[in-house]
Structures are given as structure tokens and as C-alpha cells.
Amino acid sequence: MPLTDVAPIEATIEIAAPPATVWALVSDLRNMARWSPQTAKSFPRGGADGLGARFLNVNRKGLLVWPTQSKVVRFEEGTEIAWRVKENFTIWSLRLEPTADGGTRVVQTREAPDGISDVSVGLTKVAFGGVPKFTETLQADMVRTLTRIKADAEALARN
After folding, report:
1. For residue 64, how far is the Cα from the chain centroid?
2. Is the pTM of this model over 0.90?
3. What are φ and ψ of residue 149, in 5° steps?
4. How far is CA 120 from CA 109, 116, 149, in A?
5. DSSP letter for each residue of 43-91
6. Residue 76 bridge partners (DSSP)
7. How far apart are CA 30 and CA 67, in angstroms?
């Protein structure tokens, strides 16, 4: 039975770039390999973008390397992209909100509305020091991811 008592985790950042500029970056999930400390590579499967697009991801933490499969489950042009990880049931999303000064607020969320799979919980306990410790790592990695998105988007907006 999946671990079902899982609170969402979230991180937010403000970016001095218009939403269209930020969206052009975040809507291409292959970019996650540049930003996310755990995503080493992301391969689209079938070449589709948008809702229903599928990806094979290679993840890495230290010497550990593992594959995951993802499918885009929410896609609202210019506003939100969300993908579900098949192996652990979690849904990751990036939501964009315009700010009063013409910039963009980006909110990254990891939620587990269907819980986290037994296999994932077991591997997390063995390889990552347990669910609470790994959740802390994910929260810190979300901040790193958003900081990298901010740097790319602001550089693009300046050019």
C-alpha cells in the first residue's frame, strides 16, 4: 500500500523576465537536466510536446543513477506544466504567475495525490536516508532548480 500521508512540497521564486520568456524555457522539459540537481538527462519519447508528452529521465544523486518515466498530465499554455512520475506516483509542476512589475513568479510543487509507491519508499529508505531526509533534499533541490531557471530566464530577457 502506498505511503499516503504525503504533504506537498513547494518553492517559489520571482524572475525579472516576462512570463512568455520563462514559459519558453520551462515548457521544454529537456531543460530540467540543466536546472535540476537530480535530473541528469531527459529524453522525449515520441517527440510530442504538451499534454500527454512522455519522457524518459535519467536521475543521479552521487554515485546512484536511476531511470524514471514521466508523462505530462497538465499543460496550460503560458501558465502551468505538470508531469507524473510513473515509478513513484508523484506529480511535479511549474506554475507561472505574472507579477505587477512585468516579471514572473514561478512556483514549483511536488505533490502525491495518490501517495508514493511502496517501491519508491523502500528505495528512499535504503538509498537516501529515509523519506523525511529525502524530502528535505528535494525541497533544497527545488530552490536550486528555480535559481537556475531564474538565471537562464533573466539572461535571455537581457538579450
Report:
1. 19
2. yes
3. -60, -45
4. 18, 7, 27
5. EEESS--STT-EEEEEEEETTEEEEEEEEEEEEETTTEEEEEETTT--E
6. 80
7. 14
Per the structure block, which three cell numbers stand in for 134? 529525502
Residues in the chain: 159
Is the separation of the CB atoms in 33 and 106 below 8 Å?
Answer: no
Nearest CA-CA partner of 70 in 79, 78, 81: 81
DSSP state at residue 5: -
CA atoms of 154 and 143, how far apart (whole Å):
16
Q: What tens digit of pLDDT does each residue of 34-89 get?
A: 999 999 999 998 766 789 999 999 999 889 899 999 999 999 999 999 999 999 99
CATH superfamily placement of domain 9-158: START domain (3.30.530.20)
Amino acid in position 121: V
